[in-house]
Each structure stands twice: as C-alpha cells, then as structure tokens.
Amino acid sequence: MKAGMMIALLALGTAGCSEPAAEKVGEAEAASAEIDTAGYDIAVRCQASFDAVARLYKILSEQATGAEREEMAATATQRSAAAEAYRGIARSVGTKMGRSGADVDAAIKAAAGTVDAEFEKRPFEDFASWVAQEADRCPPPST
Asked: Which DSSP state fits 122?
C-alpha cells in the first residue's frame, strides 16, 4: 500500500510538469544563444584590438635597442598569440551559431577595418592609448 501511494504521489507531482520544463529548456536555449552571440562579438572585437596592439609593439620593438627591444618583441608575440586565440574562439563560436567560415572571416575583417578607421582619425599616441584600452577590456581568451 505504501508503494502504491508513493507511485500515485509521484504521478500527481509530475503531472503537468512537462510544460514548465519545456519552457525552462526554451529559456535555457535562448540564454545560451545570447551568451554565444556575446562571446562571438567579444572574440571578434578583441582579436582586432590585440592584433593592432601586436603590430604597434612590433613597430616599437624594431625602433628600440637592447633589452627594451627584446621586451617589446616578446610583448608583440604575446599580443599576436592572444589575437590568434580570439580568432579561433570567433571561428568556433561562429560555427556553433551556424555562421559560415566566410561570414566569420568577414566579421573579423570588419572589426579590423573599425580599428584601422580609428587609426586614421586619431593622432598616433591617442590611437595607441585607445587600442590598448580596448585590448585591456577583453577577458582572457579561453576556449
């Protein structure tokens, strides 16, 4: 008798739960899509910022000498690696979102174009400061 009551209570307790559960699944999927979109946008933006910072450090390292040259070159290499990591994240998340490789490449190119446009309209020191701040706003790249 106790087993039968437990089964009946479980049946009553789960009756009608499929609809709210389906809503929860839909909400979770929507939240996941928002996270993917935000992550994609961040990765695209950050790869462009880190790529520009890497180019700046490379140029500065070529003008420096001694230990300063080595330090600047190492920083350029690190920033370039971060840019590459963000490109990989953008490609991975973009593919997960159903974007083609060409779409992802176009977004990456557009982000680089945005950074280049800032370079054209700002004095060099202002641009360097701006792009460094943009890179600093990026979370550490992780997959």
From this structure: S
